[in-house]
Here is the input.
Amino acid sequence: MVMLNIVADKLHFEPMTVRLGAVVSGVDLRETLDQEVVVQLSEALVKYKVLFFRDQDITREQHLAFGRRFGELEIHPLTQHKEGFKTQDIDPEIMIVESTAKTPITADEWHSDVTWRKEPSLGSILRCIVSPKVGGDTLWADMEAAYDGLDEETKEEIEGLTAMHDWKPFRQAMYAQPGTEELVKELKAKYPPSEHPIVRTHPVSGRKSIYVNNPFTTNIKGKTREESMELLTRLYRTASTPDYQVRFRWQPHSIAFWDNRSTQHYAVGDFFPEHRLMERVTVAGERPF
Here is the structure.
């Protein structure tokens, strides 16, 4: 069957809030996308920060092809070793995120993906295959709006500061598995803590955002642990402001494409012991500034 190109004038974006999130219609991700469509989706990603697609019954190959239109795909260096995130025998750029009654998996903390890498990801494209009957939503927070909402004194306090990011949560999970000590040692040498600005500037829009998160940010450079935690805790809390959030109810064949440079997300763990199966590809990014 010959697939037709999708043209840009068919695209429609329905905002979900005034700050972030838009449902995209007028596109079939099984088909080949014109470069003009890719450009329009890229621009919408920066504007809306999270793009949602419904009823996209695509294959793994089509999922990969869609992701590659926006850049090189990265292979997550750690989650392939963690139960519930195994790549098995499929393409290593695909990460399986599966939760069952036996192995309940979720990411129920506000975070931006892989900030412990020198070059964290640009964004991720998450596809729902099996959704729970109830619950299991994902929320995103607009960290540019969170920065705008800070008082001027706090903005002055954090300007120019940097923080250290580490993959400690993954190490703890790996240590729980027998025989992983040597692997952890190898990965620690390969992925040492990374230093990033607390206030990140978006490389496309130039807007500033808060770029620290509780799971991966360990301390502020040049401050004591007590000083670091007092300030970091205040900044972590901003993601929890409902005014900065959008919430998405998953259904099979739903897809979310989020900008990892300007958002944080939270996968709600309110569906256990229901089954949830997702697959994710991630677009490689650049060093934050």
